[in-house]
Amino acid sequence: MKKPKRYVGIDKDINGGMTTIGKIIRDAWVFGVLDESETCENWNLAGIDSLLDKVNSEWDKYGCMPSRLPPDLAIRHRTIHEKAIQNAKQSGWSGEMETEDEE
């Protein structure tokens, strides 16, 4: 199957946005790299890759661990990701695919 040249947007992504790109976007929201209204619809791979670099730079400040986030960012992280999980579950995502190989 041919890969699309443009991202569909986190709101239209498979599994309720529970994808690698979806996580990058949510983390960009957490750190204020993107406004929460930005879905990245129609972004090309270079744009997503640039966003990943910015998000990784932010995570590096905290050892890539949510537990090391300052209180304001920790609350923001929890709020954004819990809402995403709830929305994804409502659209049929269960998280089982992410843990299939752990048995």
Roughly how much helix do the residues carry, as a percent range? 40-55%
> Major β-sheet, in short?
none
Question: What is the succession of H and E elements?
Answer: HHHH
Subunit arrangement of the protein: single chain
Global outline = globular
Question: Stretches where pLDDT falls below 50 for ≥5 residues?
Answer: none
Coarse structural class: mainly alpha
Number of helices: 4
Q: Determine Rg (CA atoms, Å).
A: 14 Å
The separation of the N and C termini measures 29 Å
Q: What is the residue-averaged pLDDT?
A: 91
- Give the total of beta strands: 0
Beta-sheet strand percentage? under 5%
List keywords for this structure.
mainly alpha; globular; 103 residues; 4 helices; 50% helix
Description:
- With 103 residues, this protein is mostly helical.
- It contains four helices and no strands.
- Helix 1 crosses helix 2 (45-60) and helix 1 (20-31) runs antiparallel to helix 3.
- It is globular and about 40 Å long.
- The model has no long low-confidence stretch (mean pLDDT 91).
Short précis:
The protein is mainly α and 103 residues long.
Provide the fold topology.
Elements lengths: L19 H12 L13 H16 L10 H20 L5 H4 L4
Helix pairs in contact: 1-2, 1-3
